[in-house]
Amino acid sequence: MRPTVPDVRSYFTKAYSEKLPSRHEWTAGTASPELIKLVWDQTIKPHSKVIEVGCGIGTEAVFLAVRDMEVTAVDISESAIETARKLADVYGVNVDFHVADALNLPVGDGEFDVFCDQGCFHHLTDEERGQYVKEVLRVLKPGGLFVLRSFSDKIPGGPQPRRISSKELIDTFASHFYLEHLERVLSFSTEQRQFPLGWFSLWFKSE
């Protein structure tokens, strides 16, 4: 059973502590093609300072560290972070992992060139979205890149993750960020969802 909005944090904390990573439908075992391309074409430049929220078991955080980024990664699940640290050890890279909430990040102001979110924003309530925007703005440098990937309204129903429309994205972020790119992209099919289409968007913080 999928969680409702109020108990989504406890849902993921429990899920990571009770199941192997391969048993979670959101685990891909690799960085997404969209993130790989951003590094490949140097939209995310070498040696950038990157923060990832909702990092899970650290697959993308470790990918970024392997590609010479200075990475901080956050998840609400202690079990997920424990696994992520082991993965970083396997690759011999340093990632600054934290057990923390995306709405209260344990980092200073204006520290990061890039803010990455794959699958956190679409779990927030309407009330939490405002605080989320404040945190993204707080930790990004002027002109910093915000990479957002989320469920879209083209994925069939269910209370969680929330299905997000393009209007919601623009209404939430356009007052503070320049929209560079917005498209629906295909994710891996699972038993729960065949050919799911989510959002991939790039935003730059206003100077």
Automatic annotation (TrEMBL):
Keywords recorded for this protein, A-Z: Methyltransferase, Transferase
Alphabetical list of InterPro entries matching this protein: Erg6_SMT_methyltransf (IPR050447), Methyltransf_25 (IPR041698), SAM-dependent_MTases_sf (IPR029063)
One Pfam family named in its UniProt record: Methyltransf_25
An annotated GO BP: methylation
One Gene Ontology molecular-function label: methyltransferase activity
Stretches assigned to the Methyltransferase domain: 50-144
Protein name: Class I SAM-dependent methyltransferase
Organism: Laceyella sacchari (Thermoactinomyces thalpophilus)
